[in-house]
Amino acid sequence: MENKKNTGRWKRLAFKLLGTSNSRKILATIVRKQTAHLPPFSFPLDDGAVNKVFIILPPESLEVLHQLENVAALKAFFRNAEVTLLCEALSVPLARMVAGVYVTEYSLKEKRLFSAAFSGFNRSFNGAAEVCCLLTRSEDLPLLYLAGRTGAPVRAGYAGAGIFPFINFHVKPSPEREYLTERNCAMAETLGAGKMKKAGWSVARQPRVEIDHFLKDNRLPRSAGIDAFFFHRVFGAEQAKGIIRAIVPFANNAFYLYADKTPDASEMQWFSQFDLPLIHNITIAQVAALISSSKLVVSGNTLLFGFAALLGKKAVGVFKKDEIDAYCPKTSAAVRGIVYDKTSVAETVSGIIRAVAELTSIP
């Protein structure tokens, strides 16, 4: 094992010295030799004849969340196939929200060319699928190389995620598809799924039980959540305090505060001034369960907002100008998106408060 680690380390050093362009050419030559014998494919694909599908998810959890509709559509389209998802370890709970798939995981530190884990994937997934879908939006060389090394006759990816021969079928979503979930679904639709019915999503039982116990213990049977750490980071301690104090009365004080990491002593002191339950350092599965039990979420471009949109919950999201079209659905009556403008913080804060007031007035 140690020899394999050393071999991988030396290979990565050699490739680093060669530079990205030359390294890519060498890897492309390996894939080209491996796939040269494959016959051409044609559309429409005979989905019923596909026995195995391999789907490589993006490494970032928020990007995985926005791929769930697409993956569910691919699973439904290739109805007779065994579908395997490869994902980063933290995103496994997200991947398992898609029913009937197998999940293989890796840790982020293993996502390197010639690492022991990825060398193993190159061997084990070689020839293991007729269709491989790479779901990254930009080039990620270890994942791109793995897609090529599968040797799948159909190796589909989004335009910009990589070149031939790693990918031999490129999907270019229409510019009109601004919302990322809908944009991603162009993959399934182009491969033949067509416009499919929106999937219904459920949350795993155990994390749901754990979160329900917490909410009942804090007498918050139908609670609302504020991503307090997000507001603290973006607006600073004083303005975040003002936003939280202005929002809380709209849900009859039935709010909890959320933090995506464990606060330090000074941060915990800041949280304590609100006299509200604080939920922090929970798993992604528990985040999903928390949102499924919440009646309203006020957040930024985070998993909290993403889950709320996916599960059809009321949500107020605060976004940078270049984020809002991609991450905030325009067609949902339960969602309000606010653009954060550093030159007009007061206007942004007023927009957040108005949006919360509007959504809490809707039954």
Structure report:
This protein is of the alpha/beta class and 363 residues long. Helix content is 44%, strand content 17%. It has 17 helices and twelve strands. The chain has helices spanning 2-18, 20-35, 61-65, 68-77, 92-95, 116-124, 141-149, 180-184, 186-193, 205-217, 228-235, 237-247, 265-272, 284-292, 303-311, 324-327, 345-360, and strands at 52-56, 82-88, 102-106, 131-134, 154-158, 169-171, 223-227, 255-259, 278-280, 294-300, 314-319, 335-339. It has a six-stranded parallel beta sheet. A six-stranded parallel beta sheet has the order 9-8-7-10-11-12, sandwiched between helices. β2, α5 (92-95) and β3 (102-106) form a beta-alpha-beta unit. α10 crosses α14. The radius of gyration is 23 Å and the shape is elongated. The protein starts with a helix and ends with a helix. The mean pLDDT is 92.
Strand content: 15-25%
Low-confidence stretches: none
Helix residue percentage: 40-55%
Distance between the termini: 60 Å
How many DSSP-defined strands?
Answer: 12
Structural class: alpha/beta
Which sheet architecture does the biggest sheet show?
Answer: 6 strands, parallel
Placed side by side, the strands forming the largest sheet appear as 3-2-1-4-5-6
**Number of H- or I-type helical stretches:** 17
Q: How would the global form be characterised? A: elongated
Please give the radius of gyration in angstroms.
23 Å
H/E element sequence: HHEHHEHEHEHEEHHHEHHEHEHEHEHEH
**Residue-averaged pLDDT, rounded?**
92
